[in-house]
Each structure stands twice: as structure tokens, then as C-alpha cells.
Amino acid sequence: MIRRFLDSNMIKDFLNIKCSYSKRKNRIRLKVSAPASIANLGPGFDVLAVAISDLKDILEISYDPHGSDLDLEVQGIDIPKEENIVYRIASIFQESCEGSFYLKLFKGIPISKGLGSSGASSVATVAGLSKTYGLDLSDEEIISIAGYGESIVAGEPHYDNVSASYLGGFVLIDHEMNRFIKLDIKKDIWFTILIPEIPVPENKTLYARSLLPNNLDRRDVIKHMSNIAKLLIGIYKEDLKMMGEALSKDYIAEPYRSKMIPYYYDLKKIALENGALGFNISGAGPSVFALAKDSFYAERIGRILSKYLSEKGVENRYFTAKINNFGAVVEVIM
Fold first, then answer.
1. Which among 139, 140, 215, 268 is least buried, having the fewest CB atoms inside 10 angstroms?
2. Do the Cβ atoms of 308 and 267 come closer than 8 Å?
3. Helix, strand or coil for residue 39?
4. ω before 286 within 30° of 0 (cis)?
5. Cβ within 8 Å of residue 122, ≥6 positions away
6. More confident: 210 or 276
7. For residue 203, what pLDDT is reported?
8. 45-54, 150-159, 171-180: range with highest mean pLDDT
9. Could you tell me the fold of the domain covering 190-322?
10. How many Cβ atoms sit within 10 Å of the Cβ of residue 161?
11. What CATH number was assigned to the domain covering residues 8-183+324-332?
């Protein structure tokens, strides 16, 4: 069973042991990229996610074993560095493993849109610093620490976005055994992602979780279980039709979080009428996604949905993406 890190002290204690065997005694520069992701995928609430192409965060790390400086430059968002998830995670590593850092984050994933932005930043930081110090952290350890990093912005650890961003492809989270299982798939699978440019609540993820009911009707639970099983079988068989049917049905989050998204059920109806195989909310929203037959349909669905929202007076943008099967990539550049 893989341990989960519930607070920064647990991580520090763990890193103190790992860093006592650290191999890194010289300067090094790294570049780490971590992709965006779609969490939940309809019925897979907190247990399923998929990494997607095109959008990614890139973190450059310059390390000197001498000194104790820690500096962060960010392009793409404007928040105090001390509040940034990259800075917060790096400070934990630095306290345990020492050395001086200059970090530069290129924020390619929009924040608070339901696309795993904080998860990607967290993954890039943990994976990069593991390589920097020569810690040889396992995949599970990197994901677990990155999941804790999510709690800095989300209020509690989450593992769906971080596991997909790190491993790539579809990922199933085994909450009983604390394992992260990559579901390999060879077929190119295309998505349309529509981003309504609307105000979101502060601490959006916490707010979105507060909308969910404490109890569910047993009949809905049975249907929900059937849908997640169907989705997993569809992924395993690479059956797009089955996947689309399953991910369009969600009895835990969609009925409640859809209220945050303007014209949500209109968008869903239009997408399905125009070739989408499935449609649902991306993570906690407000982005929505459609499963498409191919790149042509993905682009077509995006244009139609974007036009509809624009005509309703809602600013928006869309993009198409396929599965990113590689996940996070760490490169030594000096």
C-alpha cells in the first residue's frame, strides 16, 4: 500500500530520509512539462482522469547546491509567489534537502477552469525536484506528494488530475490500496473542450464540492455504478460509442455542478445532436468537454458550441485535443 501525505510535516520527514542519500552535489538545470487533464469523465468522480494534449505547464529549474535562495518567476498568471503552489512545494523540498533554486514557471493551462491547472504545476514541481536532488522517488511517491500540493489551492489532497498529468493517458485511482493505475489505450481519442469565460467563486473546487449532496438515492447509485463500469469497459475495449454513452451519465456531480455553467444542458443537447459521442463537465468546471469521433468532429462541435454561447452573450473559447499518453516529461538542459 502506498502512503499518502496528509500534511507538510509528513513530507518533510519523508524527504529528510530520502535527501540523506541524495546523489546531487553539482549544479543542474532542468525543464519539466506537465499536461492539462480532464478529471471525473462523467461518472468517475474522484477516481478517473485523462491527460490531454496541447495545454501544459512548463517549469524551468536552476539548482545550485551552495546557498539557500529560493526565487520564482511566473509567466501567465499574476499572484504573489509565496502563494503559488510551485513555490510552496519547492520550499518544503528546500527545507529538507537544502540548496539554492531559481524557478521559472510558464503557465500554459488556464487557472480555475477545471483543466487540472494546479495539478500540472504540482506535478512539474515534484517530478523536477525529485530529479534535481537525485531522489529516485517512485511514481506513486511523486503523485502522492503532488496530490498533497493540490490541497494548497483545493483545501484537501486530490489525486485524479495529478495522476493523469504525471502518468499520461487514462488513470484510475484505487482509493483502497492507494494505487494509480494507467489504462493504456492505443487509439487516438479526440475531445472538444469549451471554456466559458465566466466569474468563478473563490476557492472554486471547495465550492463545487459543497454543492454535492451528502446522500444519494439507492437507485441513482446503482445506475452510477453501472455507468462507471461501462466506461472502464469502453476504455479497455477502445469502444468510443460505449465510452461516450457512459461518460454522459453522472448522478453524483453533474446534476448539481451544472448549475454553475450557463446553458449547460442546452450545450449538452446541441453537442450530442451534432456528432458528439459523449458530453460532461470537466473536473469542477466551468469547462465542459465532448468526446468526438475524430479531429474533424471535434473541431466542428467546438465551433457550434462556441457560436451558441457567443450568441447568448457568454464569452468563451474552445480547443480540440487528443489524449496525451506521455504525461510529465523531465529534461536536463545543463
1. 215
2. yes
3. strand
4. yes
5. 85, 86, 89, 146, 147, 149, 150, 162
6. 276
7. 79
8. 45-54
9. Alpha-Beta Plaits (3.30.70)
10. 32
11. 3.30.230.10
Q: Which of 155, 141, 188, 168 is nearest to 284 (CA)?
A: 155
Dihedral angle at the C-alpha atoms of 39, 41, 46, 52, nearest 10 degrees?
-30
SS3 content of the chain, % helix, strand, coil (to 5): 40, 25, 35
Write down the pLDDT at residue 245. Answer: 97
* Higher per-residue pLDDT: 334 or 307: 307
Q: Please tell me the pTM assigned to this model.
A: 0.94
pLDDT-derived band at 1 (thresholds 50, 70, 90) equals very low
Residues near 61 by Cβ (< 8 Å), separated by ≥ 6? Answer: 28, 29, 30, 31, 32, 101, 102, 103, 128, 129, 132
Q: How far apart are CA 58 and CA 33, in angstroms?
A: 4
Q: Output the pLDDT for position 143.
A: 94
Q: Scanning the structure block, which residue is given the C-alpha cell 474533424?
A: 296
* 142, 155, 164, 15 alpha-carbon torsion, rounded to 10°: 0
The domain locations on the chain are 8-183+324-332, 190-322
pLDDT for 205 equals 80
What span, in angstroms and rounded, lies between the C-alpha atoms of 331 and 308?
42
pLDDT score, position 23: 64
